[in-house]
Automatic annotation (TrEMBL):
One of its GO terms (biological process) is cell wall organization. Residues 36-152 form the Pili assembly chaperone N-terminal domain. GO terms for cellular component: outer membrane-bounded periplasmic space. This is Fimbrial chaperone protein. It comes from Sphingomonas aerolata. InterPro entries: Ig-like_fold, PapD-like_sf, Periplasmic_pilus_chap, Pili_assmbl_chaperone_N. Keywords: Signal. Residues 1-23 form the signal peptide. It comes from the Bacteria.
Amino acid sequence: MKILRILTAIVSPLLLLPGTSRAAAVIIWPVDPKIAATERATALWIENKGNEPITMQVRTLRWSQGPQGDLYDDQDEIVASPPIAVIPAGERQMIRVLRRERPAVAANDQTGPGERSYRLLIDEIPTANAPNASRLPAAELAVQMRYSVPLFTYAGSVTAAKPELTATVERSGSGRTLAIRNTGMLHARLVDIRTADDKKTSLASGLAGYVLAGQTMRWPVPDGVPDTSQIIANVNGADQRLAAR
């Protein structure tokens, strides 16, 4: 299995706001697609707000996390149809994201029971490369703009599932890091990680990232923040004080 690290710039669809010069030509929604246990597919829409046709390629990668951060693997559980689309100016294209079969939940699955995580990489291919795009290896594909959209699929009910987060400040030769571990059964989407004191010192502003179920992610700790500081973050849409460990 090939493990991919995405080295090119990844633009979150949440940043596609009016006034963003190049990226504003493409609008992608929803920004948080899901495939429920009772569903076999979901729809992803790509709209071309520019004045010229664009060619978009959609790839689906298995998403996990390790000591060095996010990891992306080739997989064949989830496919996009069509994988490549030419979208005329002012028009939109629906991409069906299909689950080939409902996966059994393995005992050692890195995500929570019933939840699996993927990334949809949506690449805008320069017109000159578009005719040969399907024959280019993914690592060699010339990309004009890349968008990364998280996708979560479920094999069972997650009504009672939730992230369970603990925060620890770790020390190493390169400095201090805030380690946030998720021992819950559902992913955590973190926004605006900050201290809970009067200073509200920011550790990661805006969308900080995700902590998948059963995984740990890390962020640098600025100078002046005590190791014992309580941490607050917006977790899946609501502020939450993270338990210290």
